[in-house]
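Problem 3 from the worked examples.
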Amino acid sequence: MNVPAPRLPLASALAALAALALLAIGATAAADDALEDPARLAAVARAAAARESGRPEAELEVGAIDPRLRLAACRTAPGAQLTPGTRSSTQLTVEIRCTSPPWRQFVAVRIRAQEPVVIAARPLGRLQVVAIEDLAVVPRDLASVPAGYFRRAEDVVGRIAQRTIGSGEVLLPATVRPPPLVHRGQSVTVLAHAGGMSVRTAGVVLADAGLAERVQVRNAASGRLIEGVVRSSDTVEVALE
């Protein structure tokens, strides 16, 4: 014999349903009020910086994230990438993005590592040709090294000091330039590339420049000024859009 379940009075049933609805609303509100954990932001930023810079995470130091930051907790895994133009030798900026709810946050990441750096082993005079015995390769903290430094001594041998350089100074492309392959007023062949085609014409260089350096050239036929890259002692290459 089946015994029917006791029925709640209508008022009691409605009260129970209302209580359940309030609990559900409260749970949703609590989820909506949840804030993004700064520790997760730091981890996401470090992983993105390691992935895109090729550096191990142990060498990356995430900048302080303001604990007062009140970002709604991301319901999905946040995306992250380095911002354009911020790939310096030591300082990176990571953009973290969330789609639900939509927000983005920028986080600074610093590279803490040492690299081999070429320095002057002794004082160098202006216009002195650099020899191997003038150089030393030493480990330096990247945070203290200007961008553009050399890592190998052989890349500096034969270059010319552009000014007096002190012993221990980090050598840069601007301070030790390659010997000029072309000279001001020299006639050269201009090799121009455009749309998969190459055209050769005559030109005159307007300044001394070394191998792989940029130099202005005057087109001998049209008089137009163009800029190209020195490829040899008599050739300047130009890429035309």
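Problem 4, a separate protein:
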Amino acid sequence: MKIKIPSIIKKQIIALTGFLLSGFVAAHLLGNIMIFFGPDAYNSYAKKLMSLGPILYLMEAGLIVIFLIHMGFTISLVIENRKARPIAYKKTPSTKKRSIATRIMPYTGTLIFAFVVLHLLDFKYNNHYGVVAGKLQEGLYARVYESFTDPLHSFLYIIAICAVSFHLAHAIQSMFQTFGLSSTKSHPYLVRISITIGVLIALIFGSLPIFIMVKEKIAQKPRVSFYDTSKEVMHNET
């Protein structure tokens, strides 16, 4: 016997799992900020995570389950909605404007899924070696550093982060609406807060590859010492 789950329950499950995933994004952001403090700080953070052992694996397994539930119910709801409306109905401009964020959520979600898979392959399941300022170094910082010195890699990362931020901002609004926690009066404030959170996440995450590329550019510049400058001045005077 097939159990049919009501659409409202599916929406609530999607909202709840989305909220939990948002918490992970926030925690991940706090960890990634350590990149700004150099290799020792970031590698120390990575080692502390790995030292959790079975607890870390349990957390990762839980995260995967939450992610799969979120994706599964989202796909199910999209299919259900399309079956319910096989023929597109005419929309007023106001309805179209309101629903554009909702309608592109499956696409940003698909982009995020591809990004997560590639992100894990690139950083978690790859060797933790990389070239930093022309020297081969060991550690997760070196792996991240080398990856972000590639402009194409950094560009794609920033695009994916923008998708994550947009998805997250709309997810916050959807969660409050789905559980009836949003009113006509509070909704405008909720929209502003969610957009602010999304923009902040995009700016902080997006600044990571830019920071690395600028740092690498500075490291590549030839350094002129005071001694070399003095020799050049003396040579010109003679």
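Solution to problem 4. The chain has eight helices and two strands. Confidence is low (pLDDT under 50) at residues 89-98.
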